[in-house]
Each structure stands twice: as structure tokens, then as C-alpha cells.
């Protein structure tokens, strides 16, 4: 009965989704790495740094930030590319226990450490325990041609889904840099500089998404 209810909930969710910019999605016959092979047996990550504050457990049993101890936090922004042309995006990962619902120490033997390597370990722990909750949010497609890579994915904006596109240059089979971002909701383009490096990893979550499952709804022929 629980399984049937979850299927019903998913059907209700997808029937209510507002998905914009369908006609701008890459021609789905041309997605993937067919035209310029790059590694897909792992994940890619961008290294970042952000000035922030540590969390501490407050007297109410929750967590607060200590604004007296600023520090430069090392982060990664990961994504996975898949042979079928699909991709998954994720939020920023750090080397800290910032998700207090999930215990990284108990589940993966990880402890807090401000390093890129530890951020990667935390992300890999997330991948091992990945649960797919959204049919299109954070998911998309990509294609490569000559030395160019284009990635597209959907973001959620107050219950509606809008397309984001990034274009860049493939440096080699394990490295690319994204140079341009186009936000279809805002109809705005801007320059970016996001260098992504490859990390081999044997476990990858299922990347099946609404776009691939409903190709006829995405009409771009270019």
C-alpha cells in the first residue's frame, strides 16, 4: 500500500509541474559525449572558497552560526555526466557535518576537516546514500562537439522549473571550463569561469529524468 501511495504522489507531483523553456532544450538526438568523448565514470567538481562562520549547538537544541569566528571554507560544486547525455547537479559540498539530519560520522566514518579532499569524501558519502526525490529539479542534459561542451539543467523557482544553460571549452578528457551562462527565466547572459576536474568514482546515482522520459515534449531540432 505504501508503494502504491508513493507512485500516486509522484503522478500528482509530475502532473502539477510547470516546466518552462522546453523548446530551448538541446536536440535530444545529439546529447552525450558521442562527438567528443570525455570521462563519465565518476564525477566532475569545481573548487570554491567562501568566507563563512562555524555552526555550534545552541541552548535550544538547534544550531546557530558563531559570527565571531569567520573562516575561509573550502567547497566543491559537483555534477555527474552520464553516457546517455543526462546529467545531475548538486549543491555545494564541504568537509563538514552541515546536514544534521544525516550523520556523516556514523554512515561513512567522516569527521570535520576544512579541505577539498574531505569535501569530496562527504560528497561521495552523499552519493552512496543518494535518494531521488525530484523528476526534473537539478537534472538535465549535455552535449559535446569538437572542443565545446554545453550543459543544461532545470532549477526550481517557487514551484516552477526554469532552464539554465552553460557553455564552455573542453581542455582534455578529464577537464573542462564553463565560460558562459544563460538564464532563460531572466533572459540574461553572463560570463563565468568555472573549471571542472574529473574524479573517478565507481558509484553513480540514476540520472533518468523527465526530459529523457518525455522527449516528444521537448521539440528543439537544432
From TrEMBL:
Stretch forming the signal peptide: 1-20
PROSITE patterns in UniProt: PROKAR_LIPOPROTEIN
Keywords tagged on the record: Signal
UniProt superkingdom: Bacteria
Name listed for the protein in its UniProt record: DKNYY family protein
